[in-house]
Design goal:
Radius of gyration of chain A: 23 Å
Strand content of chain A: 15-25%
Largest sheet of chain B: none
Largest sheet of chain A: 14 strands, mixed
CATH architecture of the largest domain in chain A: Sandwich
Radius of gyration of chain B: 18 Å
Order of helices and strands of chain A: HHEEEEEEEEEEEEEEHHHHHHHHHHHH
CATH class of the largest domain in chain A: Mainly Beta
Number of helices of chain A: 14
Distance between the termini of chain B: 37 Å
Number of strands of chain A: 14
Oligomer: heterodimer
Shape of chain A: globular
Structural class of chain A: alpha+beta
CATH superfamily of the largest domain in chain B: RNA polymerase sigma factor, region 2, helix turn helix motif
């Protein structure tokens, strides 16, 4: 390899690494453009405008650089039995029931009964899940940077934010996918070319007969709701008592199963206690769940609902992308739960992820740590507070938060970032 | 959905088609823009602009199956337009302001970005937009000559001419840079296009 070939290779590699890290920016921008009238960035040529334009450009660059310096922690996941999942370890779903895997970003992948699978990789933006046998139902939380891949038999399903049901029948060599929301890109050895499947469509591929068919999904696929219904968990009642957070990060995903056992004995006039609401939440249909509450009057429902239900409502609104409604629900929950429950953490997530108000987010995470000194989200809140202070440009506070993180969680997921911040670099 | 089907769906304005376009060609457009521009803070805006232009202009696409080549050319056209306007703006600004306005490109010169990359694109800034794009695609991206011709919508001969000129300018300047000079071909040997 000649010296200049090495130069090009080095540049290419550097750019590609940066592209992966910064992809969220481009994705977010482009997605905003989609579906809207074409708009262009105005670039005035007068010098005084150019001078002003330097400021946002530098801010964007600074944000970009900050993001490079502070990679988000990898996702974690919890299996149906409450055990922390491990990457690369085989998972055998029991024959009689689905086996949900809950990810720390709120995504849920539920293996069908008897499925054999493993989570082969995770990063901050998603995971790669290999399903060797059987199927899975997935509800992937959409974020700008989301990148999920399911290897189902010999097929690869590229996912952004979506809900779908997928299955590989190795005996008949038939691949089946039913897509409820979003879109996915499927490729496989029996297909002529990668195929994009849109909302409401199904895809069937028979490798034996070399046939593909697509069409509209007619009704729910068999067993979909059952698979998406979360598995009973050990310690599930923890979240019931007094509305304290339920002990693991995945409870922020808004799946109401944690409190399902107590629901029957909890009298409430709120729609949040109904089977219709619960079915929507349990199957990840957050927009429809929120619409149901809106139809009954959101403020009225906030007044009627119990504290734990309001936390669920906040989660649901957050996953549906409605930051204002999520904030309303969490704030309402603060009045009804001892110490606010995990509402401060939810408010911090809204500020951090949806509003990019890092200073506000940091304050909410700090509030959570004060209100819930034994809370199950303490580690996440400590790490998030550290990140938020750093992104807010509060160097001294970020350093203090980093030192606190290292003292409490020296081997935590965010320990590398904490060490950087604590040492001033 | 094939490219032709997607193009027809876009022309009919079918719901969801634009999302599929982005899913399928977002990374490709991003790659082309980054190669042409470098790690510039304007990249996200330009990608936005590429898709806005594409959605607006897709009805003019005659050969629906050529969707990938077409959106690639939209990306490079957008990048070229921006590069040209930035050069114009710099000249204009320098004529009216005694103070040096910071270049947006300098804002990404962080410890995380290798000095080599930053200096390479600083040198590329000296090239005219067409030459710069041809050079970046051929050498930084590693495209074959015919691919460069296809995506920039010019003849092979034009690509070769641009590359010859671009290489001469690039290496003349790179030899004056303490980091880049070690990568330069021996003077007089020239560079294969």
């Amino acid at each position: 390899m000649s010296p200049n070939e090495r130069l090009w290779e080095a540049i290419r590699g550097e750019q590609d690494r940066a592209r992966v890290r910064a992809r969220y920016l481009a994705v977010a921008k482009a997605r905003r453009a989609i579906g809207k009238p074409a708009t262009r960035v105005r670039r005035d040529r007068r010098f005084w405008w150019a001078s002003v334009a330097v400021l946002p450009a530098m801010a964007a660059a600074a944000l970009w650089v900050v993001r490079w310096r502070s990679p988000a922690p990898d996702l974690t996941f919890v299996e149906a039995d409450g055990q922390i999942g491990r990457v690369g370890v085989a998972i055998d779903a029991p024959p009689g029931a689905p086996w949900p895997l809950r990810f720390s970003d709120g995504s849920l992948v539920s293996l069908s009964a008897g499925a054999h699978a493993r989570v082969s990789a995770v990063d901050a933006n998603g995971a790669r899940i290999v399903v060797d046998r059987g199927g899975a139902s997935a509800s992937v939380v959409h974020r700008g940077r989301s990148h999920w891949v399911l290897d189902v038999g010999p097929f690869e399903v590229l996912v952004s934010g979506t809900r779908f049901d997928v299955n590989w029948d190795s005996n008949e060599e038939v691949f089946r996918l039913d897509l409820e929301e979003g879109s996915v890109l499927v490729s496989g050895p029996c297909m002529h070319e990668p195929k994009s499947v849109a909302r409401g469509d199904h895809l069937r591929v028979s490798c034996r007969s070399k046939r593909e068919s697509t069409g509209e999904v007619l009704g729910r696929p068999d067993g979909f709701a059952e698979r998406m219904s979360p598995h009973p968990e050990p310690g599930a009642t923890r979240g019931v008592e007094g509305g304290a957070d339920a002990g693991t990060a995945d409870t922020t995903a808004g799946h109401a199963s944690v409190r399902a056992a107590s629901r029957a004995t909890t009298p409430t006039a709120s729609v949040l206690g109904t089977d219709a609401w619960r079915a929507l939440v349990d199957t990840g249909r957050y927009r429809q769940a929120l619409d149901l509450v809106e139809r009954r009057g959101f403020e009225e429902q906030c007044r009627l609902a119990l504290g734990p239900d309001l936390l669920d409502l906040g989660d649901v609104a957050r996953f549906a992308g409605d930051a204002n409604r999520a904030r309303q629900a969490y704030v309402a929950a603060r009045d009804k739960l001892p110490g606010g429950g995990r509402s401060a953490y939810g408010l911090g997530l809204i500020a951090f992820d949806q509003e990019r108000d890092f200073s506000g987010a940091a304050q909410w995470f700090e509030t959570y740590l004060v209100e819930q000194p034994e809370g199950g989200l303490r580690r996440e809140a400590t790490g998030r507070a550290m990140e938020a202070w750093q992104l807010a440009g509060a160097g001294a506070k970020a350093r203090a938060a980093a030192q606190r993180y290292l003292r409490l969680y020296p081997n935590g997921l965010q320990a590398p970032l904490a060490r950087q911040l604590a040492t001033g670099f | 959905m094939t490219d032709a089907e997607l193009a027809e769906a876009l022309k009919r304005g079918e719901p969801g088609a634009s999302e599929v376009l982005y899913e399928r060609y977002g990374p490709y457009v991003e790659r082309l823009v980054v190669r042409a521009m470098g790690l510039d803070p304007e990249v996200p805006d330009l990608i936005n602009e590429v898709f806005a232009r594409a959605l607006e202009g897709v009805r003019g696409l005659r050969q629906s199956s050529a969707l990938k080549g077409w959106i690639g050319s939209v990306a490079l056209f957008t990048a070229r337009r921006f590069l040209r306007s930035r050069r114009t703006r710099r000249r204009w600004v320098s004529a009216f302001s005694l103070d040096q306005v910071p270049e947006t490109a300098a804002a990404v010169a962080s410890p995380e970005v290798s000095q080599t990359l930053v200096r390479t694109y600083a040198v590329l800034d000296a090239l005219p937009a067409d030459e710069r794009i041809a050079f970046a695609l051929r050498f930084v991206d590693g495209m074959e000559l015919h691919e460069v011709a296809q995506v920039t919508r010019v003849s092979l001969a034009t690509v070769k001419r641009r590359l010859v000129r671009a290489q001469r300018i690039f290496w003349d300047r790179a030899r004056q840079d303490p980091i880049l000079r070690e990568h330069a071909p021996v003077s007089g040997e020239g560079e294969p296009t």
